[in-house]
Amino acid sequence: MSNGIKASDPLTQSWHSQANGNHTTKIILNFLRPSRSRSNNNSDPVVVSRPAPSCPNSSTVADFSHLRRRRPRSAHYDPNTITLPEKQEIPEQDVNETYERLEKLGEGSYATKMDLSKYLERHPTGVDCLQIKLLLFQLLRGLDFCHKKKILHRDLKPQNLLLDDSGVLKLADFGLARAKSVPSRTYSHEVVTLWYRPPDVLLGSTEYSTSLDMWGVGCIFAEICTGQAIFPGTKDVMDQLDKIFAIRGVPDVEKWPQVKSLPHYVPNAFPSYKEVPFKQVNILLAKLQKAGNDLLGMFLQLKPDDRISASCAMLHPYFATLPRNIHLLPPTASIFSLPELQAWQR
């Protein structure tokens, strides 16, 4: 593993302000509660989608003051926003059908063609190397915004990442999103679809931070590359842990002593698995080359504190071939506003 980048995002450090005594936290928690859509006299559109907490998408983010009104499944930010003119509603239906219909509803609407899961079904051997980088970078960009606002997504999976025809990726479905206020806060361990759930949560941990989402990023990264889930458990939690440990090795209690205190940890419950190089797991992971495999390993660390943060991951050498000014874009600008990437879109 490369030690050039350390996951030291300030968010992963302690937030000592309690929810009842911190004004910012109260705002976040109030935002996560259900609210009713209403029109006003300004030009802000009413968000149309199934109610769920909203955060910025992976390609475009904006000021936190925009996080209001009905809680859409997708982000409410230009240019990757799903909006309608005032007072126009869409009947409840399957989310993918809803996004398909939006493009026909007039000026100001925005269509998303499919989720990442459906896209990968069309690419069973993964996608090309540049597209892998662009999709992953957009995902990290959206998560970085959420994490800096102390919001955890908690349900990252390909089905919750939306794509349009131009390659723009959007983070969606914040139905399990939570505001994180203090490091010791207890959450439910029944979060994240099993294939994308980190080992600490599978072992019963209810105290977690942004590392929960970063494990999911690693799983999605590998899946974009190969077209297949990297840890496809078929039975239960123990089977899922076995799939993880068979590739990443069993936890080393000397490096991760806290694992012994997790509710479902049982010493010697699994074979003495050793870490396996990713290219031996799936030959398609070899196309990530050294830098990509190094970054993948930083996401998929068994010990949660060792996982790289979204902000640090965007600075990893794996992204060195992307335009340098991609890091200078204002938060409301799409990465495809760069001329170099517009050429790729065409």
UniProtKB/TrEMBL annotation:
It comes from the Eukaryota. Pfam families: Pkinase. SUPFAM superfamilies: Protein kinase-like (PK-like). GO terms for biological process: mitotic cell cycle. Residues 33-51 have a biased composition (Low complexity). Belongs to the protein kinase superfamily. CMGC Ser/Thr protein kinase family. CDC2/CDKX subfamily. PANTHER family: CELL DIVISION PROTEIN KINASE (PTHR24056), PROTEIN KINASE DOMAIN-CONTAINING PROTEIN (PTHR24056:SF189). This is Kinase domain protein. The lineage of its organism: Eukaryota, Metazoa, Ecdysozoa, Nematoda, Chromadorea.
